[in-house]
C-alpha cells in the first residue's frame, strides 16, 4: 500500500522507471522463472527430488535399480533436453548386464535392458543421466537401451526383442517429441569418441525403424 501512495504523491525517479520498464518486459517470464525454481529446488544442498520407489517410465517394465555410481540424478527434460535414443548390445547375458549395472565399480549403465524374449527391465529413471554412451553430452541428451546378446551373433536379435524394443523406443520418442529416424535413433558405435561397435552388422536398422514408426502413438 505504501508504494501506491508514493506513486500518487510524487513523480517516480529514473531508477524506478527503469525497474518498472524491466518488470513490464519480463513480467511474463517471472512466473516461468518461479516455476523453474520450484522444479529445481532439490538441487539445493541437502535436498533431493522425491522419487517413487520402484516406479518405471514404461508400462510393463520391471524395475531393478542400477548402482547410483553409474548414473547422475537430474530433472530431465527440464535441465537437459532429450533428443536421442542410443541402441546398445550387452555383449553378454541379461543376468550379466544387470550384475555389472549394479556394480558401483563398473562406471556405466543404461536406462533399459531388453531380453531376447522381449522382457524389459528399467534400471535408471529417464529423468536421470545414465553413463551409457561414453560421451557426456550424449549421456545428458539421450536414453540408453541395452539388448541382450552379442554383436557378432545374428540369432541374438529375436522377433520378440525387436517388437518390445520398438514399442519402448516409440514411447520414448512420443514422450519427448523425438523424430523417428536414424539421426535421432542411433547405435552406440555412432556416438562421437566411442570405441564400441554395437549394435553391430546384424542389427536390422531398416526393420527396426519401420517397427518403431508403426508403434509410434503419434501416428494414431
Tell me the layout of helices and strands.
Layout: H1 2-9, H2 14-39, E1 62-63, E2 71-72, E3 84-89, H3 94-101, E4 112-114, E5 120-122, E6 129-130, H4 136-141, E7 142-147, H5 159-176, E8 185-187, H6 205-215
Parallel strand pairs: 1-5, 3-7, 3-8, 4-7
Antiparallel strand pairs: 2-6, 4-5
Write up this protein.
This protein has 220 residues and is an alpha/beta fold. It folds into two domains: 2-39, no CATH class; 62-219, Peptidoglycan recognition protein-like (Lysozyme-like, 3-Layer(aba) Sandwich), CATH 3.40.80.10. Helices cover 35% and strands 12% of the residues. Strands 1-5-4-7-3-8 form a six-stranded mixed β-sheet, with helices on both faces. Strands 2-6 form a two-stranded antiparallel ribbon. Helix 5 crosses helix 6. The longest helix is centred in the N-terminal third of the chain and has 26 residues, at 14-39. The radius of gyration is 23 Å and the shape is globular. Residues 1-26 have low confidence and may be disordered.
Amino acid at each position: 500500500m505504501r508504494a501506491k501512495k508514493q506513486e500518487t504523491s510524487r513523480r517516480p525517479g529514473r531508477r524506478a522507471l527503469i525497474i518498472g520498464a524491466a518488470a513490464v518486459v519480463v513480467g511474463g517470464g517471472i512466473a516461468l522463472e518461479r516455476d523453474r525454481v520450484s522444479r529445481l529446488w532439490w538441487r539445493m544442498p541437502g535436498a533431493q527430488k522425491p522419487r517413487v520407489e520402484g516406479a518405471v517410465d514404461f508400462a510393463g517394465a520391471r524395475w531393478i535399480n542400477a548402482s547410483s555410481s553409474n548414473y547422475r540424478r537430474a530433472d530431465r527434460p527440464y535441465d537437459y533436453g532429450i533428443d536421442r535414443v542410443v541402441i546398445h548390445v550387452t555383449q553378454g547375458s541379461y543376468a550379466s548386464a544387470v550384475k555389472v549395472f549394479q556394480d558401483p565399480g563398473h562406471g556405466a549403465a543404461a536406462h533399459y535392458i531388453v531380453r531376447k524374449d522381449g522382457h524389459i527391465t528399467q534400471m535408471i529413471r529417464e529423468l536421470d543421466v545414465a553413463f551409457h554412451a561414453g560421451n557426456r553430452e550424449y549421456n545428458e541428451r539421450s536414453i540408453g537401451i541395452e539388448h541382450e546378446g552379442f554383436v557378432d551373433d545374428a540369432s541374438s536379435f529375436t522377433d520378440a526383442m525387436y517388437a518390445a524394443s520398438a514399442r519402448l523406443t516409440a514411447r520414448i520418442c512420443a514422450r519427448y517429441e523425438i523424430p523417428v529416424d536414424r539421426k535421432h535413433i542411433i547405435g552406440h558405435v555412432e556416438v562421437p569418441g566411442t570405441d564400441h561397435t554395437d549394435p553391430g552388422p546384424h542389427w536390422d536398422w531398416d526393420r527396426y525403424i519401420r517397427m518403431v514408426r508403426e508403434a509410434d502413438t503419434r501416428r494414431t
